[in-house]
Amino acid sequence: xxxxxxxxxxxxxxxxxxxxxxxxxxxxxxxxxxxxxxxxxxxxxxxxxxxxxxxxxxxxxxxxxxxxxxxxxxxxxxxxxxxxxxxxxxxxxxxxxxxxxxxxxxxxxxxxxxxxxxxxxxxxxxxxxxxxxxxxxxxxxxxxxxxxxxxxxxxxxxxxxxxxxxxxxxxxxxxxxxxxxxxxxxxxxxxxxxxxxxxxxxxxxxxxxxxxxxxxxxxxxxxxxxxxxxxxxxxxxxxxxxxxxxxxxxxxxxxxxxxxxxxxxxxxxxxxxxxxxxxxxxxxxxxxxxxxxxxxxxxxxxxxxxxxxxxxxxxxxxxxxxxxxxxxxxxxxxxxxxxxxxxxxxxxxxxxxxxxxxxxxxxxxxxxxxxxx
Length: 373
Ligand SMILES: Cc1cc2nc3c(=O)[nH]c(=O)nc-3n(C[C@H](O)[C@H](O)[C@H](O)COP(=O)(O)OP(=O)(O)OC[C@H]3O[C@@H](n4cnc5c(N)ncnc54)[C@H](O)[C@@H]3O)c2cc1C
Fold this sequence. Notes:
Distance between the termini: 20 Å
Structural class: alpha/beta
Radius of gyration: 21 Å
Bound molecules: flavin-adenine dinucleotide
Order of helices and strands: EHEEEEHEHEHHEEEHEHEHEEEEEH
């Protein structure tokens, strides 16, 4: 099979021009670039921990709006599914804008995951008097469990969203990307670029059009045929941000506190607890908890399990690869190698599944063996 390559991204030819006249290269006998990659040493003896988290998923996408409830204005920002970290500098900033628009100084933020912390940070920096109320604080939030690849994914059902929502969402994706850029390689924040590979057996629907615009994916190249990582027929390769949530959440929590936000650890059993708060403006970033607290039965868990391996300094690439045994993804962090690939819709269980641990360790081991084959 011939290898077809489309190069796109900032500074490259326009996508339209590329698509109309793709550069077609003859297969070469030279070694594919990825044969120089260090293989992931995926072995049960190198497993350090396995974490399970519940993504807060709504088929109609995240909720980002406000409503008047009695004497309070409640701003909602929850239900970000598999991309709550990714979208934080978009949705949380809009939530902060809605809260600022009420014109009051004192604001309550419910939730201390990435959405609540980012909203609190933005509001505190604007001079609001912010109190974060949350049952779980970092490192015990769902946000701490996440991978994290900066990529808007697994957060709505195509059949449930309107073109207007998609167009608004596109703007927020772009805001979110720009919001993260200043953190890349900033000491203590755990954000860095990886050489990412989205692999597939068939040409994916979004082949030529990645979420938010191709310019958000530096060095994007689309290749089909020989030479792709692990010999997959289709590959979208680009630089992607990897965010280590343990570093990142601690860092923005400190930033929020430095800007004046206070934290009060407490649980809200129902709406009357929320209505009893002294603040008249409340930003609701309770993630999956919003379902019970605000009576939203559209929000459901999407269970995910991640197995961490000992770190490998020489791994600077990442991938998402569908296999005959399910999807597998690998994100390198400075503190360890993250193996994932489970999306169990409607599953509430938080216990690690030993069969899944084996599937991941063996599956990634098999992929890694192709590098030295
Ligand atoms: C395995 C896995 C992998 C993931 N990978 C990625 C990824 O690669 N990229 C990405 O962008 N996202 C990823 N995600 C998704 C991401 O983790 C979530 O979208 C994100 O954490 C949601 O953030 P949040 O702040 O809304 O919720 P949370 O982090 O869950 O925070 C909710 C906060 O609200 C508080 N709260 C809830 N109910 C109450 C209550 N009744 N009273 C008081 N406090 C309450 C909680 O205690 C907590 O402080 C992944 C998730 C999982 C599970």
